[in-house]
Amino acid sequence: MKQAKKDQTDAVEVDDVQGLVVYGYGHLPIARYVFVSFTKAAKIGAWLGEIVEQTPSARRREKGAPRPSTAVHIALASSGLKQIGLSDEERATFSYHFIDGMANLATQRTLGDFGDNAPETWDFGGPNTPPIDALLLLFATTEEEVEALLERHRDRMSELGIEVVTVEKGYRRDDGKEHFGFLDGVSQPHILGGGREPEAGDVALHPGELLLGYTDEYAEISATPTVGAKADPEAILAPHPDDDTQRDLGRNGSYLVYRKYQQYTSKFWGFVWESAQPRDGQDKDAAAVMLASKMVGRWPSGAPVTLTPDRDAPELVRDVPPFTRLRGGGYYFLPGLRAVRYLAWRASNQPGLLASPAKPQPRAEAG
């Protein structure tokens, strides 16, 4: 539901926003992404109720307070919301990308996911792999800590009927570079009013660009999913600002996109080496780095080629082979903490038969 335009920058309700939306967790370089499905016997409400109490909000730490050594976050797939008990009408208030999923033909055409990248070849999230209802995101300072955290959650999920489909490992390199050798994370958005102090290079954005229910860069309120007021008799959710018959399920939430790529680093640098043409006294290594930088858009140091160019080199343009392969992916809803509590209650109480339906909304874009 698009709301009326506003001119001011909103103050973000940081206590209701999952911390992952605002902070990059640079001090937690080790991650585990746990993709799960809900069995028929799953105690989803109990699980979500426990997870939300472990999930940090976006509120800044008190000055001098120690940084946490771990963090736990939760995101839900459209199928997970259905398992929780949301009706088709309620789920239709979400972004159509989220509802349709990443493995449908329309999205394939948009993203070019064909051939080796087709969903049928994916490790997870595709039509030939088990369904995924939720994504549990675990972060820690060391491998030992994240493995211990994962083991605790595995044990508890097993007790509650939550089935682990697959676990993907993640880590941040010590040099801050991605696997092709270029500095990563150089264009991080800063949410105005979000509580975090901006850092050098941050791009300041109105919160509605990343958070549902807030003003975006067009001075409009971003669309937000809803449920009927009768589906929230405990008044866990906030009323929708433009319709008192609806409750705002999306406010302070966001959408999360997960894409797993396999990077062919040797193939990339082999292509660059063969294609580079030294000139003006350059050696082959320097020419290869220059070509790679122009392809990536920045030098290995992170300096953008638009600000530090050598010169235009149209003679180097040619057909470029793929250097990555898509291995899995999906769209997820990263709910606000109040919404997680509501979904925990909803899963335990299943009020769908008594609920007033959500009002159909124009299909909103994700991101």
TrEMBL record:
Q: SUPFAM superfamilies, alphabetically?
A: Dimeric alpha+beta barrel
One GO cellular component this record assigns the protein to is: cytosol
Q: Name one GO molecular function term.
A: peroxidase activity
Q: Which residues form a coiled coil?
A: none
Which InterPro entries does the UniProt record give?
Dimeric_a/b-barrel, Dyp_peroxidase
Answer whether the UniProt record assigns the keyword Chloroplast to this protein.
no
Record lineage: Bacteria, Pseudomonadati, Myxococcota, Polyangia, Polyangiales
- Which named protein is this? Peroxidase
Is-annotated flag, keyword Coiled coil?
no
Q: Which cofactor does it need?
A: heme b
Tell me the keywords, alphabetical order.
Iron, Metal-binding, Oxidoreductase, Peroxidase
